[in-house]
User: Fold these one by one.
Assistant:
Number 1:
Amino acid sequence: MPLSTLIAVLAGAVLTGAAVYILIIIAAAWRRESAAAESAALEHRLLRERIEAAAQRSRVEREADELSWNGLRKFSLARKVTEAEGIASFYLVAHDGRPLPPFKPGQYLTFSLRLPGSDKPLVRCYSLSEAPESRDHYRVTIKKVPPGPGHEQGGRASTFFHDVLKVGDIVDVKAPSGKFHLDAERSGPVVLIGSGVGLTPVLSMLNSIASAKSGRETWFFYGVPDGRHHAMKDHLKALAKDNPNVRLHVSYSKPGPGDVADSDFHHSGRFSVDVLKRLLPSSNYDYYLCGPSVMMDETVAGLKAWGVPESSIHFESFGSGTAKALAPASDADSGQLEVTFARSKRCASWTPASGSLLDLAEAAGITIPSGCRTGNCGTCITAVQSGMFDYLVQPGSPPEKGSCLACVTRPKSALTLDA
């Protein structure tokens, strides 16, 4: 090949290589600019969504303030639906026809019930079981508990709802309240756990996530004895089917002859943290729990032992006991302390077997108004004139300094109460 031709070929190759190199540089720069533009667009979209979410929260809070009410409001029973054996949902509409304020998923209603043959109202709290988007009515889902030792109030109230209250009857209700509720400002993965009728507040949370179509990773665990006590079965299955982000797991502690594994339920035996360890990819979730005291104590302790920080565990207990997962050791746990009820002019000796100050008062024939009996509704707030106390469980709505919630309080020294 002549030298001139070779030089021409080499020059062409160099020019081609240079052109390719320039094109590579231009493409890389374009990709960087495109990525930067996409990143900026994503940041702009996220910022816009945060602003819109903040504006929505502001509107909801303003609307809640405008539509809420102080004291008691009349509601009439519009519908009653059986959900499982001994469990029914009660749909309530405002008697005055005015709109209802939104609530936070997990909150409850406080009822002041006038029971036949009783000369004073019975105060009782029941969780709302629907998503806050249900604005023309409120729904509570209640299990009938026979009156008996340790749950006289709950038994009387739930029996009244199931056996006495009829469609069209009117009840007195306080506005939705409670600090046990889903944090709607967070979008991270969440685990919802309900045992028995403790299903209700976490069901409200699940309904809220589903109705928002947020795609938030949600694990829902529900423990019941068997299929006869399995409330909202079809509804839960439909939610899991229609929302790929929702993973439903139901435990039957004692499956019945007609209960079908992998159809009616997923796990045989009592729910425990071991179920979570087998299924969850990690422990890095926010946990919301509601159920009987024993189940709550075991689950909270199990989560802490698994390394879940206390700030990620949110719970509400119910029933005859109180969750003691947060109860600090007391110097008085093995002693006997004198409690004076000043207005009643009576004294009683407290021991660890006495339970709460409310239990002690009732055993002594002293009336302290109460509702939830788990430190959430604030009905049993009592002024402390002297002495020291601590809580069996951290109250959901702590009272002002100088007062206690008698239903979850125990003395640490001789105590004088304004009761």
Number 2:
Amino acid sequence: MKAVVQRVKNSQVTVDGVLVSGIGHGLMVLLGVSEDDTEKDADFLVEKIIHLRIFEDENGKLNISLMDVRGELLVVSQFTLLGDCRKGRRPSYIKAAAPEKANRLYAYFIRRARELGVETKSGVFQAMMEVSLVNQGPVTLIIDTKEKDTKNKDSKTNEPG
């Protein structure tokens, strides 16, 4: 799975001019599902995202997480994150999961975030959406479960101080 994570003041999704979801202070996540992703990838990614220390503490340091600030999460499915642009001028999406699998893991990711206590909203799978946001910082990160550190199975102890 691949995610683009943006710290936002607010974000919303509209489809055909109709607001379908929106959040205030929190994180907006564009989520791409690859053909070989599993629920284990979704579990890793949701835990990583909600515990990233990318919100400012009382000293202005990026030191607290979405859970700490009780922020919201907006998750939008975006298969184009799996686009391979290395050859030619047209991206190849051969690594993207088939729609049925992608939708199942997208829904699973959202369900897991909610089970972990995060107020979570979503876009509309396979719809042509307009996504707007006010990025705070700006803070934008790209996380790919295929690039996670495999040296230490406990990712919580793998983070610096």
